[in-house]
Please model this.
Amino acid sequence: MTADRLSSAVNTIFKPFGISKEQYNVLRILRGQYPKPSTLSLIADRMISKTSNATRLVEKLRQKKMVERNQCEENRRRVDILITKQGLALLEELDPIMDASNHQMRNLTVKETKELNRLLDKMRG
Model:
């Protein structure tokens, strides 16, 4: 299936960097918010795969020193999550690799890309 082939190709890219595609997604979300911190709920809402466990993913990235978790001083129930310089550096290294890996989409015209997106949206309901 196409999804399996694409997923396998992406996993092959991330393996040498010691992260998963879900962790990459979290890092990109955090980079988009940077320098403002994010919350777990914001990350979970923006995840591509809604079945991913944002708490677990953030903790694994924290252990790799790619993100920081800090209790919010104004609201002690809230945990602020911020990408570190190490996380930003990893994304900077991965950006050209990911750009090059997106060559599958370059074979589609703008019209075909729009049609593909329409059909995928329709399948998701």
